[in-house]
Protein 1
Amino acid sequence: MPYNPKQHHRRSIRLPGYDYTQIAAYFTTICTYKKQCWFGDVINGEILHNQLGIIVHHFWQALPRRFSHIQLDAFVVMPNHVHGILIITDSGARQPQSFPSVENFTDAVPLQNTNIRKTEQFGKPVSGSIPTVIRSFKSAVTKRINLMRKTPYPPVWQRDYYERIIREDGLDNVRQYIINNPLQWAEDEENPSHHPYEQLDLGLYF
């Protein structure tokens, strides 16, 4: 079946009892608060990041440095959301490391971990799980932006996120969807032109 983003990735509720530390590829989508376009703009099918978009891009790149069992695949930081494929390369969950500073991002090679299998429960984060990785990313970005603007309001991110476990035969289709996202921005359901939200001021000027 051809990949359809409206049908296949708008799922914000975790699968009950599923082990989100196990080896798999996960397609994730994280949206800004009320779909606000705070990370840049799309011009002629190309995403042009502002200062905040660059920060988000760098923190996403840094995830393998913080979580050694995570490998990055295709990803894109759009004006009001992030699409990315996260691959767990080992079912063990290491203790996370600190994020590197924005000035010192480099690609990292995933390391091997010990074998631990756990399932997510509400209010009980599982070390190394996909929900924990996403929470850590969102928190790190929020702290950096709040430090810049000197206020925690409005929130940077929408609550929760969307995810889908990718079957091996669908990986290339999801990659292509992510790569083509800037070209499809005018039709993207995350584009604020499709929603009646009021434009909010994040409190920063560029």
Protein 2
Amino acid sequence: MTRLSRAEMQERNRARVLAAARDEFAEQGFRDTKIDLIAERAELTRGAVYSNFPGKRALYFAVLADLAEHAPPVPHIEPGRTTGDALAALARTWLGRMPPSEERWLGMDLMPEVLSDELTRRPYAQLMMLDAVLLGLSLERLRQEGRMVKVAETVLTTLHGASQLAAAAPGFGDQFNVAKACEQLAYLDVPDEWLELPFTAQVRAVNEPWAPPAGWDSVRNEEVSPVEDGVVAVLGLHRASAVEYAVRAAPDTTVTAVLVSGTPAELIPLARLAITELTGCLRQAFPEFTWPRLRVLCDGTGALARAAGVSAVSDATEVAIRVSDGKIVARAEGYGACHVVTKTQLAGAERETRGG
């Protein structure tokens, strides 16, 4: 028999813990599930569970993220060719991906846990804003007119509310009517002006190597290595939505958001869940040409951040770099970094670097 390496053993144990935790949460609910019962079900020790996850809530978020990432496509959904059709398809996909009624209470404690303290509330608010940006950008590429992030916010409010009520009040509401309402929201007339703020972050021309490891793009659900020319934004979860400043400043530039956290074991799974809940539906409901030119990579280990020269991260981190010809040629740190790095003319930064 082939002996497993330490890394393979850890991965196998982690998978066993996730499977056991999913079953316990589905049967008992989050509140009544005990770590000891998860360990017993996984045929592991309590210590083995804690060596993979720092606590029950972190494990709960990881279970929900894993389910979202592996959810199968909803049958008979075709991408919409208009904004209304696409939003109706998005709603049908969203509602069709909800678990069967006997498992639905698996996710019932998500919002109470998010609301339980500031550690989760503030990141989750930013993640919802990032979801609205992703959906809004897709709507804009389909309609080719104006900013649609406010419309996207309203659609997401409707869909999240429908999900919560489906779990809390089974039988309440009609899925066809929810899809029809989302279709009509495409034509909602709401003010949505984009303002460029006077940021004070300073851009520095640099000449540094850029050799990032691969990461998983939650938008397109594929492994990527962000080596091509463009902007990379390393963002703590209190600053996740700031990537829109990079996207708006240079719509034709490839932008990669690298999400980091000071509490990665708990909050990065929450980020994976929040983003994948939307993008898993978006990929099915919207034509591929409308998917935003924005990659979102959840960096739980900090490896991508370190490659960008960010050795220590927190949920307030905002660092943006400009990549050209395999080098980091410009860098900014602090509030507004995404905007100023993207707005800086690359040729000017390169000249300054050569001059230095």
